[in-house]
Specification:
The complex is a heterotrimer.
Chain A: H1 6-11, E1 23-27, E2 39-45, E3 48-55, H2 63-67, H3 76-80, H4 87-102, H5 108-136, H6 140-161, E4 170-171, E5 174-175, H7 183-206, H8 209-215, H9 223-228, H10 234-237, H11 245-248, H12 269-292, H13 310-318, H14 341-347, H15 359-364, H16 366-376, E6 387-395, E7 398-406, E8 412-418, H17 422-426, H18 428-432, H19 440-447, H20 451-455
Helix pairs in contact in A: 4-5, 5-6, 5-12, 5-19, 6-7, 7-12
Chain B: H1 3-20, E1 25-29, H2 33-41, E2 64-68, H3 76-85, E3 91-95, H4 97-100, E4 122-124, H5 131-147
Parallel strand pairs in B: 1-2, 2-3, 3-4
Chain C: H1 3-13, E1 18-22, E2 29-32, H2 37-46, E3 54-62, E4 75-83, E5 88-96, E6 102-104, H3 113-124, E7 127-129
Parallel strand pairs in C: 2-5, 6-7
Antiparallel strand pairs in C: 1-2, 3-4, 4-5
Classes of the chains: A mainly alpha, B alpha/beta, C alpha/beta.
Chain lengths: 456, 152, 165
C-alpha cells in the first residue's frame, strides 16, 4: 500500500504495544458468528494478531465411516448434511461419483434437473454467506433481506424435493422424482424477488463507506499461496484465477448453458464479496436456461389404457389379479417417488442394477418384483465392480470431490469427501496474521466455513 | 391453604408471565439445524413476536440455552461449561434430533442426546425441525415457565 | 497433456519407482514406491509441461478387509494432483505396511499437505516423516485409536472427557 490508509493513519505505523508480551485469546468454539464451531487460538500484541492456530473437529460426525455401514443410496442423507446450505450439490456429486464407478450415464432430463437444482442451491449458499458476514459487521437488515430471499428459494426446493434443507433428492442413477407441474413460472417469480433483494443489497453494501473500510485490503492472500493451499472456488477467483469446475470439466448440462465466471484481482474480502454477488446472478441465469431447455417437455401418457387410481392399482396387484396391470398407466403426481412409468423413464437411467423399477412393473410382473427385491435386500443392491473413482463438481466454496472405492459388494468400501472449505480454513492463519483482532470477523465470514463439510 | 399461598401463587404467575415473554436465548449453534434456527429467527417465521427475538451471545446474560445441532464428544465439555456459566433461572431446549437422541449419527463421535450431559426442558425433534415445530416447542417452553414455581 | 502421455512421461523418468499404472474409469493413476515418492511429487509439481501446482486431496484407504488384498500392504496413501494451467489431473498412490506405516511428508511442496497429513494421521495412524506439527486434526487429543481403520468398530464409545483445565 503506497499511501497511508485510514487505519494506519489513525493507529500509527506498526500498531501493537511493542512490549513483547503477547496475550493468548481463544476465539470460539462457541462464538456468535453463526458459521459453525471452530477455535482460533490467537496470540495478540495489543490488537494485532501475531500468531494464530486454528483448531477444527468440533463437528466431526464420522461421515466417512457412516457411509461404509449401509448401501450406496444409504449414504445420500449423510451427504446432505455435509454442506448443509447447498445440500443438492453434495447429493448429485456423490451420486455422480458412484455412477462414474459403475460406468453408467444418466438421462438428459436428469442432467438438466441436476444443473438447475444445483444452481438454486448455490444461490442459497451465497445468500447465507453474504447475509451472515454482513450481519457480523453490523448490517442486520441485509441479513434479514437475504434470509427472506432464501425462504423463496426454499419454497421452490420444497416443491420439488419435499423438504427445505436436508432433502436427499439425488439417487445413484438419477434423482428421486421428476419436477412438479408448473415449476418454471414459480422459479421465475422467486428469481424476480431474489433479484430485487440483490439489487437492494448492492445499494446498501457495495459502495458503503463502512463496509468498504472493513473489507478492502483485509484478509488478503496472494496468488501463490492460494494455489499452494489448494484453495478453489470464489476465493481463488478473487485472486484472478478463473478456475471453475463447471467450465474446466463440464458435467451434467453445464456445457449447454451459457454463463460467465466472474473474477476479481485483489484477493481481499471485498473482492470475495463481489465475486459471490456476481456468481449469484450467473447461477440464476444458468437455472433459467436449464429449465427452458429441459427435454421431455410436458408429461404425456402416450399409450392407451384406462388410467387407474394408484391405491386401487396396488390393491389389485397384491390380490394377485395382475393380468394387464403392466400396461395400465397410473396417475401419480410427478413429484412422488416410486412413480409411474412415463416420469420414471424421463429422469432415471435405464439400468436394472441401480434404479428401482416403476410401480407398474413392480406390481404387474414377477421380473419387476424380483428386480425391486434384489435392489433392496441386504447383500444385494447396487454392486459396482471393484475399483475407484474420483468425481469433482463445483460446490459453493470450491471443488467438491468424492473419491469412492468399491470392493464389489453392496456397501461402499471407502467414501472420501474432498471438502472445499478445508483449504481456506487451513490458510486462515496466513490471512489473519498481521491483521487486527477486529478484522478476524469479516475474514472468517468471507471464508464461508461450513462446519459439516470441514469436519465431516 | 390460606391467604398467603393465594398471593404467592398469583405472584408466581405474574413473574412467570413476565419471564415467558422476555426470553433471552443463547443459540448454541453447531450444525444444519442452525439454518432452520436462522429461518425461525428472521422475518418469515418471526420469533420476535414471542418476545424471544434478541439472542444474547454471552451465557451470563441469557436464560434459555438453545442447543442447536449435533454435539460431538469434542464439543461436549464446552457445552457443559456454557451451561454451568448460565445463571438461574435457566432452561434448555434441545433443538433437532441430534441433540435429543443423537439422531442417525450412532457412532464414536456423537453424544447420544445432550440429556446425558445437561438437563433438558423441551425437546424439539426434526432433522431439521420446521420453523413451525420450533415455534410449537417455544410455546411449550413458555407454558412450562408459567406453571413452574418461580424462585428468585 | 492427455493422461496416458503423463503416465508415459512418468514411466520414462522414474522407471524404478513406478510400481504400476492404470486408468480405470478415466482416472490416470500411478502407484509409486515409497522411496521415490518425494522425487516423483516434486517432479510433477516443477516439470513445466505437467505443472501440478495444486494438491487437491491427500487421503488414505485401509485395505484390511478388501477381498483379494488381505495379505498385501495394509494402507494406501492417495494423492490427487491437479494443474490449473494445463487442466489435467493425476492420482499418485503409495502402499505402506501396517508395522511400518510411514511416508515422507509433502509439506515443503504444497502447504495444504500440513492439514491433510494431520487428518490421515488422526484417522488412520499413518505417520508422515518430517511433518512439523503432528497433532490430531478432527478428534480430541485424548482419543485412543484411529477411527477410520477397518478394525475400529463404529459404535465404540470412549469415556466422555471432562472440561479442559
Amino acid at each position: 500500500m503506497a499511501e497511508t490508509t485510514t487505519r494506519a493513519f489513525m493507529l500509527g505505523e506498526g500498531s501493537g504495544t511493542g512490549s513483547g508480551q503477547n496475550l493468548q485469546v481463544g476465539v470460539g468454539p462457541a462464538h456468535p458468528a453463526m458459521h459453525g464451531i471452530i477455535r482460533i487460538n490467537a496470540e495478540l500484541d495489543g490488537e494485532v494478531i501475531r500468531k494464530a492456530d486454528v483448531e477444527i473437529g468440533y463437528l466431526h460426525r464420522a461421515f466417512e465411516k457412516d457411509c461404509e455401514v449401509g448401501g450406496y443410496n444409504n449414504a445420500i442423507p449423510y451427504t446432505d448434511r455435509l454442506n448443509y446450505v447447498s445440500p443438492l450439490i453434495n447429493n448429485f456429486a456423490y451420486a455422480s461419483a458412484v455412477e462414474k464407478l459403475l460406468g453408467i450415464d444418466v438421462t438428459e432430463r436428469c442432467k438438466f434437473i441436476r444443473t438447475a437444482m444445483s444452481e438454486i442451491s448455490r444461490v442459497c449458499d451465497h445468500l447465507t454467506c453474504v447475509g451472515a458476514s454482513a450481519m457480523e459487521l453490523g448490517a442486520f437488515t441485509v441479513f434479514l433481506y437475504m434470509i427472506k430471499a432464501r425462504e423463496f428459494l426454499w419454497e421452490l426446493i420444497e416443491d420439488v424435493t419435499g423438504a427445505r434443507l436436508t432433502i436427499s433428492y439425488g439417487r445413484v442413477g438419477g434423482v428421486k422424482a421428476d419436477l412438479p407441474e408448473g415449476f418454471a413460472p414459480k422459479v421465475a417469480e422467486a428469481f424476480k424477488q431474489t433479484r430485487e433483494v440483490l439489487d437492494e443489497v448492492h445499494r446498501l453494501l457495495t459502495g458503503n463507506r463502512i463496509f468498504m473500510d472493513r473489507m478492502v485490503g483485509v484478509g488478503r492472500l496472494s496468488r501463490e499461496e492460494t494455489l499452494g493451499y489448494a484453495i478453489t472456488g470464489p476465493l481463488l477467483r478473487a485472486v484472478g484465477v478463473g478456475y471453475d469446475v463447471r467450465r474446466a470439466h463440464p458435467h451434467w448440462a453445464y456445457d449447454r448453458v451459457e454463463f460467465e465466471v466472474p473474477t476479481q484481482k485483489d484477493g481481499d474480502n471485498y473482492a470475495r464479496y463481489l465475486v459471490r454477488m456476481a456468481e449469484m446472478e450467473q447461477s440464476m441465469r444458468i437455472a433459467e436456461q436449464a429449465l427452458a431447455q429441459m427435454p421431455g417437455g410436458a408429461i404425456n401418457v402416450d399409450f392407451e389404457g384406462r388410467p387407474i387410481d394408484p391405491a386401487a392399482y396396488v390393491d389389485q396387484g397384491k390380490q394377485g389379479k395382475t393380468e394387464g396391470l403392466l400396461l395400465m398407466p397410473i396417475r401419480l403426481s410427478p413429484n412422488l417417488q416410486g412413480q409411474n412409468r412415463p416420469e420414471w423413464e424421463a429422469v432415471n437411467t435405464r439400468d436394472k442394477r441401480v434404479i428401482l423399477p416403476p410401480k407398474e412393473t413392480a406390481y404387474g410382473s414377477i421380473e419387476g418384483l424380483m428386480n425391486h427385491f434384489m435392489l433392496i435386500m441386504e447383500g444385494y443392491g447396487i454392486r459396482p465392480p471393484q475399483g475407484e473413482a474420483y468425481f469433482a463438481s463445483e460446490g459453493a466454496n470450491g471443488e467438491l470431490g468424492f473419491y469412492v472405492v468399491s470392493d464389489g459388494s453392496d456397501r461402499p468400501y471407502r467414501v472420501r469427501c474432498r471438502p472445499p472449505c478445508l483449504p481456506p480454513v487451513a490458510a486462515l492463519h496466513r490471512m489473519i496474521e498481521g491483521e487486527m483482532i477486529g478484522d478476524l470477523v469479516p475474514t472468517f465470514g468471507s471464508v464461508n466455513m461450513i462446519g459439516g463439510e470441514l469436519d465431516r | 391453604m390460606g391467604v398467603g399461598s393465594f398471593f404467592t401463587g398469583k405472584l408466581d404467575e405474574a413473574i412467570g408471565w413476565a419471564r415467558k415473554y422476555s426470553i433471552f436465548q443463547y443459540p448454541f449453534v453447531t450444525a444444519c439445524c442452525g439454518m432452520e434456527y436462522m429461518a425461525t429467527a428472521c422475518s418469515h417465521y418471526d420469533v420476535d413476536r414471542f418476545g424471544a427475538g434478541l439472542p444474547r451471545f454471552s451465557p451470563r446474560q441469557a436464560d434459555v440455552l438453545f442447543v442447536v445441532g449435533t454435539i460431538s464428544h469434542k464439543m461436549a465439555p464446552v457445552l457443559k461449561r456454557i451451561y454451568d456459566q448460565m445463571t438461574e433461572p435457566k432452561w434448555v431446549v434441545a433443538f433437532g434430533v441430534c441433540t435429543c437422541t443423537g439422531g442417525f449419527y450412532d457412532n464414536y463421535a456423537t453424544v447420544q442426546g445432550i440429556d446425558t450431559i445437561i438437563p433438558v426442558d423441551v425437546y424439539i425433534p426434526g432433522c431439521p425441525p420446521r420453523p413451525e415445530s420450533v415455534l410449537d416447542g417455544l410455546m411449550k417452553l413458555q407454558e412450562k415457565i408459567t406453571v413452574q414455581a418461580q424462585r428468585f | 497433456m492427455r493422461g496416458d502421455e503423463i503416465l508415459q512421461r512418468l514411466r520414462d523418468r522414474f522407471a524404478g519407482a513406478i510400481v504400476e499404472t492404470h486408468d480405470h474409469r478415466g482416472d490416470h493413476t500411478a502407484v509409486v514406491d515409497r522411496a521415490g515418492l518425494v522425487d516423483v511429487l516434486r517432479w510433477c509439481r516443477d516439470e513445466p509441461e505437467l505443472r501440478f501446482d495444486v494438491l487437491m486431496d491427500l487421503t488414505a484407504v485401509d485395505y484390511l478387509k478388501y477381498p483379494g488384498r488381505e495379505d498385501g500392504p495394509r494402507f494406501e496413501v492417495v494423492y490427487h494432483l491437479f494443474s490449473v494451467g494445463h487442466n489435467h489431473r493425476l492420482r499418485i498412490k503409495v502402499r505402506v505396511d501396517e508395522d511400518d506405516a510411514q511416508v515422507p511428508t509433502a509439506v515443503d511442496l504444497w502447504p495444504i499437505a500440513n492439514w491433510l497429513e494431520r487428518e490421515v494421521w488422526d484417522m488412520f495412524g499413518v505417520r508422515f516423516a518430517g511433518h512439523p506439527d503432528p497433532r490430531r486434526l478432527l478428534m480430541y487429543e485424548e482419543f485412543v485409536g484411529h477411527a477410520l481403520r477397518k478394525d475400529y468398530p463404529i459404535n465404540r464409545r470412549q469415556p466422555l472427557i471432562g472440561p479442559k483445565q
